[in-house]
Amino acid sequence: MGAISLKDNDSLAAMLAAEVQADLMVLMSDVNGIYTKPPSQEGARLLCTYTPDMKDHVKFGTKSRVGTGGMDSKVNYIISVLFTIKKKSDINSLLSK
């Protein structure tokens, strides 16, 4: 599985999802989804769809006070799982409100 190393609960969920070829992976967050920039910043917009080629157009914020990863790591884990199990999907269904 190479790209995923066990660092936190999100990485464990990603590793397990890839191993069992899961149809669904749930990562919990206190943020409603992926924004164009940190949601606390003026002008931040919630994205309905996110694809890996959008990464240069999205500015992820810093890590949470209570977590170890942040939204950036959640997105990277999801992308890694999708590529590992070769499923075509967009991330918004996993990160929607």
Could you report the average pLDDT, rounded to the nearest whole number?
79
- The rounded Rg comes to 13 Å
Q: Distance N terminus to C terminus?
A: 30 Å
- Percent helix, as a range, is 25-40%
Number of helical regions: 3
Work out the count of structural domains.
1
Structural class: mainly alpha
Low-confidence stretches: none
Into which percentage range does the β-strand content fall?
under 5%
Label the overall shape: globular
Series of secondary-structure elements, N-terminal to C-terminal:
HHH
Q: Count every beta strand, where a strand is a DSSP E run of 2 or more residues.
A: 0
The largest sheet, given as strand count, sense and whether it forms a barrel, is: none
Summarize the structure.
The protein has helices at residues 9-19, 71-84, 92-95. It has 97 residues and is an all-alpha fold.
Secondary structure layout plus pairing:
Elements lengths: L8 H11 L51 H14 L7 H4 L2
Helix pairs in contact: 1-2
List keywords for this structure.
globular; 97 residues; mainly alpha
